[in-house]
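Researcher: Predict the fold of ABC transporter permease.
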Amino acid sequence: MKTIKDALVIAWINGWIAATRGWVWVVASSVSPAAFLVLLAIYGGVEGLKWGLVGGFIWTIASNGISLIGDATYYRLGIKYQSMLTAAPVSPAGYALGLALSSFIFALPTLAVYLVAMYLLGVPFLSLETVYALTALWLASAGIGFTLSGFIKHMRYAWALPQILSAVFTIGAPVYYPADLLPSPYLAVLLPTGAAAVVVQHFTGLRAYDLELVAVAALALALQSLVGLYFLFKLARWRQP
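Model: Structure tokens for ABC transporter permease follow.
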């Protein structure tokens, strides 16, 4: 219970207050997915717009988890915010979850716009299956981001690495295109973004995949989110550099 309270307090300070006072970061977080959305709408019409919205939603969730690399490294090395909390009665899990929630708060306006647009286009986006896939994706990507931040020793790498990983996780995986364009569609489940995309694309009607592939993707997501949580709570660095 205290872990959840710690997480909510950190998310309020680091997410809500920061977002309302620095709205430019909210806009900045939506720029890259919006660029893909426009291109797909131009070249693919309404169908391309649907793929752009679904892909943009998945990208936004994943990139916010991965962006923890920059935030957590900055708080640990740049302003010693983590050191201050280490001396306070705040658990590592509460701190890590709080940072992950903070990042998610910045993405909420963008995600709300995507949801409204998909509703207007008749894309049945919200279901138990898609919520499961996106929640598992968020946990897996946040675990990857927070854990990798613990291995960075210089701030100059903290902002470059998330951009590289975001590109790999969203372009290398079939987020904006069908998984069956890959040499084997099962390659998609190797990355959390690809596994989430298979589940979401199937249950939103964008692509009718074989049910065995969807089941494998759902299982891969469960394993990846559990590994992400383990890294988040057990292996992330919770001490001075």
